[in-house]
Design goal:
The protein is mainly β. Helices cover 3% and strands 46% of the residues. It contains one helix and eleven strands.
Length: 127
C-alpha cells in the first residue's frame, strides 16, 4: 500500500515559484509511475505532469510546459514539482498520484490510471 502526502503549497505572487513535494510511505515507491494533477476552483481535475518509475520519461500538459519540472528521488521516496513563472490560472489544489498500470505510458493523463492519491495541497497565485 502506498500513502502519499503533498506539501509545499501556499500563496505566491504571479511570476513567482513554488516547489511541491509528495512523500510516500511505501517501500515500493520506486516501482510506481507518478503524476501531478490539479483542480482549479469550480473546475474538473486536470493532468499537469507525470514521471515514469525510473525518472527516464516525463510528460507535461501544454499549459505548464517550459514552466514546471517534475523530478523524483527514489532513495527518498519523494516526487517533486518545481513550478516557475506562476500565473493566476495555476491556482488550484494540486494532487500527486501513483500508478502501476501497464498502460500508463499511453494513458498517463487519465486519472483512472492512478491507484493511489494524496490529499492535495493548495496553491494560490495572486495577480
Amino acid at each position: 500500500q502506498v500513502q502519499l502526502v503533498e506539501s509545499g503549497g501556499g500563496l505566491v505572487q504571479a511570476g513567482g515559484s513554488l516547489r511541491l513535494s509528495c512523500a510516500s510511505s511505501g517501500r515500493t515507491f520506486s516501482s510506481y509511475h507518478m503524476g501531478w494533477f490539479r483542480q482549479p476552483p469550480g473546475k474538473e481535475r486536470e493532468f499537469v505532469t507525470a514521471i515514469s518509475w525510473s525518472g527516464g520519461t516525463t510528460y507535461y500538459a501544454d499549459s505548464v510546459k517550459g514552466r514546471f519540472t517534475i523530478s523524483r528521488d527514489n532513495a527518498k521516496n519523494t516526487v517533486y514539482l518545481q513550478m516557475n513563472s506562476l500565473k493566476p490560472e495555476d491556482t488550484a489544489v494540486y494532487y500527486c498520484a501513483a500508478s502501476l498500470d501497464s498502460s500508463w505510458y499511453t494513458h498517463h493523463e487519465t486519472s483512472r490510471q492512478y491507484n493511489h492519491w494524496g490529499q492535495g495541497t493548495q496553491v494560490t497565485v495572486s495577480s
